[in-house]
Write a structure and sequence with these properties.
heterodimer, A: alpha+beta, Gyrase A, domain 2, Alpha-Beta Plaits, Elongation Factor Tu (Ef-tu), domain 3, 3 domains, six-stranded mixed sheet, six-stranded antiparallel sheet, 19 strands, 34% strand, B: alpha+beta, OB fold (Dihydrolipoamide Acetyltransferase, E2P), three-stranded antiparallel sheet, 4 helices
């Protein structure tokens, strides 16, 4: 593959290859997509503990007395609600009604924030935020120096707590701390994730990534810890109904349509906030819903959604066979009149029109 | 990886086992590995007569979907019903319980166009 030459490597590429990972190009990086198989990896995370290397994700540091103002201007959620050590899910709306990216906002201190963005959007987000940086907030893109390990699953706490004096057991969901971890200073550990299985995300400088990875696997051995690829990350997040940028949300989808009204707060002005406010009050024509297949078949990104008469009413944005539920599930946009739970919809797959029904998210309730 | 010598192979990563006028067909160990966990084998062509190269079904893995192509012209005589409930047999036992269809061949001279195990290994770049 000639494109491989242009791919960026993460710090632990060799480690993954030694572990037998299938590596694929993803968002410009060569990333582990699976090790022993998606279903087995999925189950490891739901029932035990697994480690994803998601070092392709981007991290920006915003620093200065006006950092919060800049974040408030570009993001949809209300970052003024954050206190030190808290994380918030948010999105960057564009001025055409869509979404530049979804992201996490970490408040490190009153004047210092970390934004965690999708790998495929690092440059786009950077340029977008910089456009609004009229008050000279210091911006640092630390993506290339930062490794991110997502240690997920009900036993993640048992694997990680012995490695640090930070109180992980007492750490609330969407909180974080920075400190010594596995003998390495300045590691940021947050009680976040993209799996619905509980656990932590560990941010560490590339130079210490191998040391931290090895310590986590040593400590997690007793709990059956395993490496997990991006394939299982996708099935896990879809069972939770979490949006994936590029699939379920993109430059053309409104956060209100996408069911992200809960991170769209009108306590302040931000990009396109007036339009979103109107959408919230008057309603939207399309809504992102979850659905499960009744007939046998697997929905995929890009398939049409129709009514019983075969007329197009929307399209599928994500779909898979759910390993935990043993049935085919998906998400997609449908006309609002079809968005109610239990509504019968149809997915044409190959030569058949297959029945599905709108269901409540998350699919997986633990 | 295992590619039994007694089988014939296609560019589309299917194997063919001939017994009299009947050809059993499945996908190779290499193909199942590339697809990953297989969750649904969708074949609705039983009883149909199809030409070599025609699509006779589809295999759905967790991440991907892939068409299945007729390695030879003929009539789909039998489907592997076991795959309805155990599609993972294609991963676990691609040359055994993972077989997909039995074809009644209409032109057995087409067999000459298929690869032997050594040529198939060469094509996918697996040595030994």
């Amino acid at each position: 593959m000639e494109a491989t030459a242009e791919l960026k490597n993460i710090a632990l590429t060799e480690t993954h290859q030694t572990l037998g990972a299938k590596m694929v190009p993803f968002a410009g990086y060569l990333m582990p997509v699976s090790y022993e198989g998606i279903n087995a990896e999925h189950e490891t995370v739901r029932k035990g503990v697994g480690v994803f290397d998601v070092s392709h994700m981007g991290e920006f540091i915003l620093k200065g007395p006006d950092a919060l103002d800049l974040i408030q201007r570009v993001t949809s959620n209300d970052a003024a609600k954050l206190i030190d050590g808290k994380v918030q899910y948010s999105c960057l709306p564009n001025d055409a009604g869509g979404i530049v990216d979804d992201l996490l906002v970490y408040r490190i201190d009153e004047k210092t924030y970390m934004l965690v963005v999708n790998a495929s959007n690092i440059d786009k987000d950077w340029d977008w935020i910089r456009k609004f940086n009229t008050a000279n907030v210091e911006m640092h893109n630390i993506s290339d120096q930062t490794s991110l390990l997502a240690v997920q699953g009900p036993k993640a706490i048992d694997a990680l707590q012995p490695l640090t004096e930070m109180n992980l057991r007492g750490m609330g969901y969407y909180s974080f701390a920075k400190g010594k971890f596995a003998g390495v200073e300045n590691v940021l550990v947050s009680a976040t994730g993209y799996t619905g299985a509980g656990g932590f995300e560990v941010y560490v400088e590339n130079a210490n990534a191998k040391k931290v990875w090895d310590a986590i696997f040593e400590s997690g051995k007793a709990f059956g810890i395993k490496p997990i690829g991006l394939g299982a990350r996708d099935t896990l997040r879809l069972e939770m109904g979490f949006c994936l940028y590029g699939n379920d949300i993109d430059d053309t989808t409104s956060p209100i349509e996408a069911g992200l009204g809960w991170i769209t707060k009108f306590t302040k002005e931000f990009t396109n906030s007036a339009e979103f406010k109107m959408q919230k009050e008057k309603g939207v024509a399309l809504k992102l819903v979850g659905f499960e297949m009744i007939d046998r078949g697997i929905p995929r990104h890009g398939y049409e959604i129709t009514n019983a008469a075969g007329e197009k009413i929307g399209h599928v944005t994500s779909g898979t066979q759910s390993p935990s539920l043993q049935k085919a599930i998906g998400m997609g946009y449908v006309r609002t009149e079809f968005a109610k739970e239990g509504t019968e919809i149809f997915i044409p797959i190959r030569d058949k029109q297959l029945k599905a029904k709108v269901s409540k998210l998350p699919f997986w309730k633990g | 990886m295992n590619f039994p010598d007694e089988l014939k192979y296609t560019k589309e990563h299917e194997w063919v086992m001939v017994s009299g006028n009947i050809a059993s067909v499945g996908i190779t160990e290499f193909a199942q590995g590339e697809l990953g966990d297989i969750v649904y084998v969708d074949i609705n062509t039983q009883g149909q007569s199809l030409n070599a190269g025609d699509v006779f079904g589809t295999v759905e893995a967790v991440k991907t979907v892939s068409d299945l192509f007729m390695p030879l012209s003929g009539k789909i005589q039998e489907l592997n019903k076991g795959l309805e409930t155990n599609p993972e047999s294609v991963n676990k036992d691609p040359y055994g319980n993972g077989w997909m269809v039995r074809i009644e061949m209409s032109n057995s001279s087409e067999l000459e166009g298929l690869m032997n195990a050594a040529d198939y290994r060469k094509m996918i770049g697996v040595n030994g």
